[in-house]
Write a structure and sequence with these properties.
Elements lengths: L1 E4 L3 H13 L4 E4 L1 H10 L2 H4 L4 E4 L9 H5 L6 E5 L4 H9 L4 E4 L4 H15 L6 E4 L2 E4 L6 E2 L2 E2 L4 H12 L7 H9 L10 H17 L4 E4 L3 E4 L2
Parallel strand pairs: 1-2, 1-3, 3-4, 4-5
Antiparallel strand pairs: 6-7, 7-8, 8-9, 10-11
Length: 223
Amino acid sequence: MIVIVDERDLVKEGYQSLFNREGIASAGFRSAEFGDWVESVAPSDLKSVRAFLIGECSEDKVSPRAIRSRTAAPVIALSEHHSLENTLRLFETGVDDVIRKPVHIREILARIAAIRRRVQDDVVSYTEVGPMRIYTDGRDPEINGAPLPLPRRERRILEYLASNRGRRVTKSQVFNAIYGLFDDAVEENVVESHISKLRKKLREKLGFDPIESKRFLGYQLMA
């Protein structure tokens, strides 16, 4: 999920629509409500945030360093003022990058992926689980070197399970990562349908089911 902080509803809704077209969940906040949320949100929910985009907002309510104290997710400033002084000021607040608007949504996603790779000290944009190579940059996974085309929701679920390899994740955590924490238009049970279809496709290619599920405990990707 991408979190957008901006005082203007039109800006937040515009970005949310663009991210939705790319299959990326997002949520929008104004400065005051974001400050309260980031301080009180559960760590398990915060793990579903891929990045924070900071636009026009109150700086005393939105502190990149305060965000950093709770998560390593990239914090990116969206700047409408094209001056060196403004860019340097934004970097001094503690953001990871400054993007000048207008900008294509795919460039934002590429910059987020690049920052996350640096944070992880790893230039590899994929995780290998047995014969599976699961990418984190939007590409379809590969099984024994052959691409496995997946709908974007199923692909994102597989990416999320791979990023949590070795840990079990609940249905709520998967839902929050794929649809966002505040999407009331979609029922959480849709996760079960997506995972059922994903498991069937993986089973056909692998000969076994790599997703272990336990009632009340959640899902885990196995080698």
